[in-house]
Amino acid sequence: MSKTYRIVLLPGDGIGPEVVTEARKTLEALTSIFDLIFDFSEQLIGGIAIDETGDPLPEETLRACQQADAILLGAVGGPKWSDPTASVRPEQGLLGIRKELGLYANLRPVKIFPQIIGASTLRPEVLAGVDMLVVRELTGGIYFGPRQEGDEEAYDTMVYTRFEVERVVRVAAKAAQQRRGKLTSVDKANVLASSRLWRQTVRRLMREEFPDIQLEHVLVDAMTMHLIRRPADFDVIVSGNMFGDIITDEAAMLAGSMGMLPSASMGDGTRGIYEPIHGSAPDIAGQGIANPLAMILSAAMMLRHSLGEEDAARAIENAVNQALDAGYRTPDLAGVAAPDQSVEVVGTEAMGEIVRSYLA
Asked: Which of the 8 DSSP states describes residue 181?
């Protein structure tokens, strides 16, 4: 008997609506193959929500997400709402929904697609074998600590509790158990008191609950170098909010395009928010040239982590691989080909249709 899954779509701003549309169509194409039923609800978030309601996270949106099995998010923000001193900003919607849903762990897989390895600025031999998962703590740290604005003095405070560290590290450690059994914890324990708490908590938790995992501690400044010099050495990386924000963007560039990388924000249950790591890209919005693959792969993560539909998730991932094997590229990857491969540059909708043609 088919199970109905309630999915909230949050297209957001910029290219968000374009790529979310392709993800939705891809999920709809799976319904007849895997006997799935999706009940979609589209809601407002970010800049468009400010324009229409005055609130970046309207109550209606929050209620719908609280009742959903999973959420697909496009992107928020853009030049129209870019004033950092404004009292209401699109990013508040994103931070707010993560907090309200208790989503404290951001999962960002970084895997090199061999078909587009030439898109990266690093040498192919450095990128060979790169397959990592970065787990970033989402609801604590300097972005949420006490702060003060001022013309002469201002401060932001990095605060972590043992509980906050333990729960996100458990997510990372459990992921490592399903992968290659290696966990790298990133901090700044030589300078910051909050990082020393982070490190001692990680050590104790891993010793008591995950003795089978190989653990290493790396300072964040060293980590930024190691990610470029020897990225294939890493399996699962876990870090606090600000450090994770920085290293996940750096890790994303190993793949050559942010248009290829999905992410998930998870809490204690199975509900999560799934989104591409790229932004709203207002410079190309409405032109039909955005790369939808990160959004489509985010839908695959949703199927796996929130819905437990592993076969359907793999079907999407295999279809993306086949589309790349066949030489199809969106403009961000134009000219990137494997040896002896011709490339055909296609737009957002066409790439979505091509991926769906390979579903099985």
From this structure: S
Distance, CA of 216 to CA of 235 (rounded, Å):
11
Active site members = 143, 188, 221, 245, 249
Q: For residue 288, count CB atoms less than 10 angstroms from its CB and return exposed for 0-12, middle for 13-18, buried for 19 or more.
A: middle
Distance, in Å, from the CA atom of 86 to the CA atom of 72, rounded to the nearest integer, reads 27
Q: What one-letter code names the amino acid at 62? A: L
DSSP secondary structure of 98-146: HHHTT--EEEEEEE--GGGGGGSSS-HHHHTT-EEEEEEE-SSGGGTS-
Q: What is the DSSP letter of 54?
A: S
Two tokens, residue 354: 């091509």
- Beta strands 344-345 and 214-219, pairing class: unpaired
Half-sphere exposure of 238 (CA within 13 A, CB side): 29
d(CA 44, CA 142): 27
Looking at residue 118, what is its pLDDT? Answer: 85
Give yes or no for a contact between 332 and 257, defined as CB atoms under 8 angstroms apart: yes
**Tally of CB atoms within 10 A around 28:** 13
Q: Report the predicted TM-score, pTM, of the whole model to 2 decimal places.
A: 0.91
- Nearest-angstrom CA–CA distance, 266 and 274: 9
Q: Which of helix, strand or coil describes residue 38?
A: strand
- Answer whether 303's CB lies under 8 Å from 95's CB: no
Are 193 and 262 in contact, with CB atoms under 8 Å apart?
no
- Residue indicated by tokens 């990592």: 132
pLDDT digits (tens, 9 = 90+) for 140-182: 999 989 999 999 999 999 999 999 999 999 999 999 999 999 9
Q: Which amino acid is at 355?
A: V
Phi, psi of 148, rounded to the nearest 5 degrees:
-145, 130
Q: How far is CA 197 from CA 163, 205, 353, in A?
A: 11, 12, 49
Amino acid identity of residue 183, one-letter, is L
Full set of structural domains in the chain with CATH: 1-104+269-360 (3.40.718.10), 121-255 (3.40.718.10)
Is residue 49 within 8 Å of 56, Cβ to Cβ?
yes
Q: Do the beta carbons of residue 238 and residue 105 sit within 8 Å?
A: no
Which residue in 110, 140, 107, 134 sits closest to 272, CA to CA? 107
